[in-house]
Design brief:
Blueprint lengths: L7 H28 L5 H23 L7 H25 L5 H8 L3 H12 L5 H24 L4 H24 L3 H4 L3 H24 L8 H34 L1 H18 L5 H18 L7
Length: 305
Amino acid sequence: MTAAPPPQSTRARVLVPFAIVTLIWGSTWLVIRDQLGVVPPSWSVSYRFLVAGIALYAWSAIRREEGRIDARGLRFAAALGLAQFVLNFNFVYRAEQFITSGLVAVVFALLLVPNALFGRIFLGQRLGRQLIVGSAIAMAGVTLLFLYEVRSDPNGPGDSLTGIALTLCAILSASSANVMQGTATARAYPMLRTTAIAMLLGGAFDAAWAYATVGPPVIEWRAGYIAGILYLGLAASALAFPLYFGVIRIIGPAKSAYSSVIVPVIAMALSTAFEGYRWTPLAAGGAALAGVGLIIALTARRPNR
């Protein structure tokens, strides 16, 4: 007997936030790049998540989100904040000091791999045939994008390897946080408030690390920098992360990671509009394959669980 397709309401609960998150995160690479320079990355990360945590906590209070967070919930939020909002983003910001934002975005598409493996190991989520086929096609596209970015990267091979290694560390950190969202512990607590606390604790950890390693706070009172902090804090964090975590809880971390596959394509499209990026047959072919793989994987009849 053939399984019935998911209800339209379930599709909307996945596709709408998936589209919003992917579009927002596709634009963040340009903004992060603009944040580098005057302000040490650790301080930029801490500002971002302190802004995000305050905004999200206020929104949780306005919505009167039900549920309380006990000591166990605080420990969970602290672990989530450390993995997602401290390690992940400090690695990403530092990676962009060595390689282009496009190459960081492309390498980050590999998030699909640890998400699928960790989901299988820790959550018991099986990888269906359609997901595997879509993943293979998408990763072929990512490989083409990767080859193009490596060839066009103006930095030397030493810087490129350092930047890629930092990005891989960010991927493992982000994947750990993604899998945490699929656990029963995550579902036991109100998502908005838990995420807000994770952001606030993460921002505090970031600030402590920044103070210990680079000294007192530094801020650039340039309009573009302040606007970037607000955009990254409010849109790319306070809005996007709860949407993304909600998608993880519905379809699992493997499929959710497809946002990282399509994000480089959006980043390159925005770079075309704002930075004069020129598409080559290699880059265009990679983008097309990534899109085809995305469609194949996300149109599976049942979630991979």
